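Postdoc handover notes: sequence design on the structure in folder B. Input tokens:
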């Protein structure tokens, strides 16, 4: 009975992720001849966040899918998303969702089974939820770079997530800089 509930929960989460992240454009996988690594034809981070940061978390073999773009988010207030995964390891991923959202935002009501932490400095800090999901680690960071709201998630096979909130905040800052957010200027 409990195993059936787990499967149902996994399917529901999978459908939610598919609906939110995979509805956009994608490319067929290609093999990079010099390195032999596999990619989807879309850069890791989908031009929303620095490819090197995503590769640093996931490695050189990845698939990336995106909807929207920095320009569409800035000019037309259209949601931009990217999900970069490791083929064969769906628990290993970096997900970015960015919205134009100048209104107040409430954090999700669901519990955070490993706890909430804060990333950043006294000048700019934001909450991050660290959970264990089906034995895998996940860090979700929610940050407002006015007037944008960003939700970055880093999924891991293990729970070695010590620097993930800071890594997610750094990626969100770089995206906010691309969007022209004055608050995000600089590197700290």
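Designed sequence:
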């Amino acid at each position: 009975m409990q195993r059936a509930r787990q499967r149902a929960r996994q399917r529901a989460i999978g459908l939610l992720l598919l609906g939110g992240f995979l509805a956009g454009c994608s490319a067929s996988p290609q093999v990079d001849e010099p390195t032999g690594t596999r990619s989807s034809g879309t850069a890791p981070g989908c031009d929303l966040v620095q490819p090197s940061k995503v590769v640093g978390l996931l490695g050189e073999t990845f698939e990336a899918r995106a909807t929207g773009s920095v320009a569409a988010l800035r000019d037309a207030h259209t949601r931009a998303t990217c999900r970069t995964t490791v083929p064969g390891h769906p628990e290993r991923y970096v997900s970015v969702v960015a919205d134009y959202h100048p209104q107040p935002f409430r954090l999700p009501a669901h519990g955070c089974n490993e706890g909430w932490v804060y990333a950043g400095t006294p000048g700019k800090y934001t909450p991050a939820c660290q959970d264990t999901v089906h034995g895998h680690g996940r860090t979700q960071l929610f940050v407002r770079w006015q007037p944008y709201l960003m939700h970055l998630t880093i999924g891991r096979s293990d729970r070695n997530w010590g620097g993930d909130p800071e890594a997610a905040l750094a990626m969100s800052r770089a995206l906010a800089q691309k969007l022209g957010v004055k608050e995000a200027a600089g590197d700290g």
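Context for whoever picks this up: Strands lie at 30-31, 38-39, 63-67, 80-86, 89-100, 116-120, 125-133, 136-145, 148-156. Don't rerun without checking with the PI first.
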